[in-house]
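Hi V.,

You were right to ask for the full record rather than a summary. Here it is.
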Amino acid sequence: MANKKTVYQVKGMHCKSCEMLIKDSVGELGGVKKVDVSLVKNTVTVEYDESQVSAKKITDTITAEGYKVA
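Predicted structure:
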């Protein structure tokens, strides 16, 4: 199992609901082990299994919810 941890800079988060929306949608992806969202730092930290989900799929999921990944 090839676990990877990546920190994404995300623009457009304004409140706790934004945090929860991203956490829930990314967390539902197969292969994602852990998601931490920081409104203060504008970051999304994802620990995932590279053999099950790609970084592009994670960023596409965040973008699909209406946020911009820097």
